[in-house]
Input
Amino acid sequence: MSDTKADKISELRERIKRCRKCPLYMHRKNPVFGEGSINSRIMFIGEAPGRNEDMIGRPFVGSAGKLLDDILSEVGLAREDIYITNTVKCRPPNNRTPYKEEIEACLPYLLEEISILSPKIIVTLGRVSGEAIRSTLGLRWRGITNERRVVKEIEYDSKKIKLLSTYHPAAALYKPELKEELRKDLGRVKKILEEEGKERRRTLYDFFT
Output
């Protein structure tokens, strides 16, 4: 049995490559696994791969990914500062919204990713990931407009995690007025990370004094 975080992620990746739990495997060119720092305290969760992601086998490499990278940079974060993945690992035909059965088939992989990486902050991008995570935790989904206003502290796998929801970058491409809302929400993520860092430094200081 693999012991290190990297080994466990590699093992999970191999299982996803072989996955045939739903019909999406028949349409994919590449399954799209998460990427980024496996030691990051921040995990972003999107919906499903699009055409570019399916072609390359990497998450958020199309125009929505470029917008996300730009906004992350504007608020003082970088792609390498985060780990980013999707709820569904294979592209639905014509980029349609994943069906409920497809989400349910893939959800165990996502939950295993969360358990392995043990992030301090989870940011869900769009309805699909927001609703999937909340339903798993027994929470009611009230829509992006309501959920993005609240930072929830949840417990998963015996660990405390701060949970935020915001718009998917693709939505901001179609509705430019959402870009500023997305920017505000990602700015809040940066502030939470900074506050957590201050608290951790205070705790260490108290320990050594």
